[in-house]
Amino acid sequence: MTTSPTAYWPVRVRGVLDHPLSRWLWLVKWILALPHYIVLVFLWIAFFLVCVVAFFAVLFTERYPRPLFDFNAGVLRWTWRVSYYAYGALATDRYPPFSLGVEPGYPATLEIAYPERLSRSLVLVKWWLLAIPHYLVLGFFLGGGAHAGPWSGGLIALLALIAAVALAFTGTYPRDLHALVVGLNRWVLRVAAYAALMTDAYPPFRLDQGGEEPAWEAAAEK
C-alpha cells in the first residue's frame, strides 16, 4: 500500500531559528560545547556496540529491541542538539541539555518512528552496500564522512560559519541559509538512522529544506 500524501518520513528533524542570537558567542561555542563532545565520544562508542547487538536481534527476530532503539535514538537526538548549537548550524544560543530524552522545548528536535518489524534480508546489506551512495554525498556535506559526535567540516560547517559572519555584521542569521543548513543536517540524520538499522525506509535523495519537517508523498509501496 502507498502512504498518504501527508505522510512524514520516519525520521523527523526540526530546527527552529532562535531570535535574537548573539553576534559573537559563536566564536567560543567550541569551548562551551567541550563537555558535550567528551560525553558524545563515549555515547557514540556505545551507539556502535548497540548497532551490533541490534543487527543480530533483527536478523533472528525481525525486531529492534525497544530499549536499544530508544538509546540510539537518544544519541542521535543529543548529537543533533549539540550540532545545532555549535558548528553544525549555530542557530541557537540555548545551551543543549545533557539528555537522551525528547526535550520538546529545545529548538532542535529529532523523532524516529519505532518499526514493529524490520527486514532480515535488508539488515545484511543496508548499512554498508545500500547506503554507499549516501555515504558519498555525506562525505561532501561533512568534509570526508560522518563523525562520532556533532558534524564538523565540509559544506555544513562552511555554511554555518558564513551565517555566523553575516550574524556578526548584520545582527541577523539569513533565513534562507538556515533552511539550507537544516535541510543538509536532515539528510545526514536520515542516513544515520537508516545505517543504524533503525528503519527500512531508504533515505530519499532530496534536500528537504526548512526548519519544519515537510510532508511528502512516498513513491515506494510497502
Protein model, in words:
With 222 residues, this protein is mainly alpha-helical. It contains 7 helices and 2 strands. It has helices spanning 29-32, 34-61, 66-85, 126-130, 132-142, 154-170, 175-195; strands at 11-15, 108-112. The chain has a two-stranded antiparallel ribbon. Residues 1-7, 145-149 and 217-222 have low confidence and may be disordered.
Shape descriptor: globular
Helix percent band: 40-55%
Largest sheet strand order? 1-2
The structural class is mainly alpha
- Chain oligomer state: single chain
Helix and strand succession? Answer: EHHHEHHHH
Cα radius of gyration in angstroms: 17 Å
Q: Estimate the mean pLDDT confidence.
A: 90
For the terminal residues, how far apart are their CA atoms?
A: 6 Å
What does the main sheet amount to?
2 strands, antiparallel
| Count of beta strands | 2
Low-confidence stretches: 1-7, 145-149, 217-222
* Count of helix runs: 7
DSSP strand (E) fraction? under 5%
